[in-house]
Amino acid sequence: MKKRDIPNLGIGIGLRIPHYEAIFSQKADIDWFEIISENFMVDGGMPLMNLERILERYPVVMHGVTLAIGSSDPLDFDYLKKLKALAKKTKTPWVSDHLCWGRVPGSHFHDLLPLNYTKETIDYVVERARIVQDFLELPFALENLSSYVTFNSDEMPEWEFYSQIVEKADIYMMLDVNNIYVSSRNHDFDPMEYVNNIPLDRVLQIHLAGHTDCGNYLLDTHDNYVTDEVWKLYGEVYPKTRGVSTLLEWDDKFISFEATCQEAKKAKQYQKSLAVK
To answer: What is the pLDDT of residues 226-264, one digit of tens each?
Structure first.
């Protein structure tokens, strides 16, 4: 699928259980929901019943957290079969996960662990990402992590590593703007250097979120309002993507559903004030 065929769904938020009562009792002024794929990769029960209710009213996009594309163990095709079945159910226009590792044979760490930025890692991830996209028969995107460590073996900056993977694999970027900002503060680089050196035509979705300032570093916590600095960065990024779906993540210290929607819809104010080229 070419980028021009990927829809701009508008402004969405992550589907979270604390908001279910409000979501099901009213027609929310929000365009779409993103689900954590693994929460609904089950055979039945309340998760799928609630998902059916959402699908009757809203578009749904799938975002995963356990693919662990950079791990050393073989790709889990039992997992991919379940992911593909859920994709058919939701009619998601794309599937995304994280540019990370988290598995070794026999163990899953259930965390988004960073990769070293080397040519060898690029080649390894590229081959696996191609297989995933071909198997799913949908556009597949990888998300940039928030970064807290670097490796002595690194051969390039993150933006070059990320760019080479998506271009060589012919996949897409699920670009987390907050993560760019968090990493830029933690590693003392200009976030615009990151933005100006990635193929923004590969971006099919943007994530926004809040973070926590821990003094010597920032932590990507998804439990607070988007900061002014991240909104400013979004204002720089969005027009250069030619307009893509935007999502607010809020995963802890929840505020009301209405307030969450209002925070997400701030993105529309930035979009209206910017000429999308």
So the answer is: 999 999 999 999 999 999 999 999 999 999 999 999 999
CB 31 within 8 A of CB 59: yes
- The answer to whether position 277 is within a domain reads no
Select from 214, 217, 215, 198 the least CA-distant residue to 206. 198
Q: Which domain holds residue 74?
A: 3-272
* CATH code of residue 31: 3.20.20.150
Domain total in the chain: 1
In a domain, 8, yes or no: yes
247, 35 in Cβ contact below 8 A? no
The per-residue DSSP string of 1-67 comes to --GGGS----EEEE--GGGHHHHHHS--S-SEEEEEGGGG-SSSSHHHHHHHHHHTTS-EEEE-SS-
Q: Does residue 179 contact residue 146 with C-beta atoms inside 8 Å?
A: yes
